[in-house]
């Protein structure tokens, strides 16, 4: 009996030309881009975790929503996160999530997840440039700016 297996196809489709992509130059520019793309109707209702995919020139290839959670947290499957990064041939990433309460202090779970993703990124030559926590009013906390990345 002949065995059959599924064929796996991987694709990435980007329609915006590289010279038109926004460039991240600092945490403020990353936060501005992230906040402009966030759903303002839900930012103060529940946590969402996203990743900002960057090319080698720190231009934003896109933003991908990894998980959507509850009032005080969301679960992030690191395997799915890296599947997206690898499939899109991303060389650097900025982690993003919101705190509906407006509190910009990272939790121990936030710090632990960031370190886990950073270690995996090091292994795969994908730079984790920052992790931003956004508040509903547009303020943000940068792990890189505060020396905890």
UniProtKB/TrEMBL annotation:
Q: Which UniProt keywords apply?
A: Hydrolase, Metal-binding, Metalloprotease, Protease, Zinc
Q: Which residues does UniProt call coiled coil?
A: none
Keyword Secreted present in the record's keywords: the answer is no
Q: Has UniProt tagged this entry with the keyword Calcium? A: no
Query: Could you tell me which InterPro entries the record lists for this protein?
Result: MPN, RadC_JAB, UPF0758, UPF0758_CS
Q: Which domain of life is it from?
A: Bacteria
Q: Where is the MPN domain?
A: 23-149
Q: Provide the protein name.
A: JAB domain-containing protein
According to its UniProt entry, this protein's organism is Salegentibacter maritimus
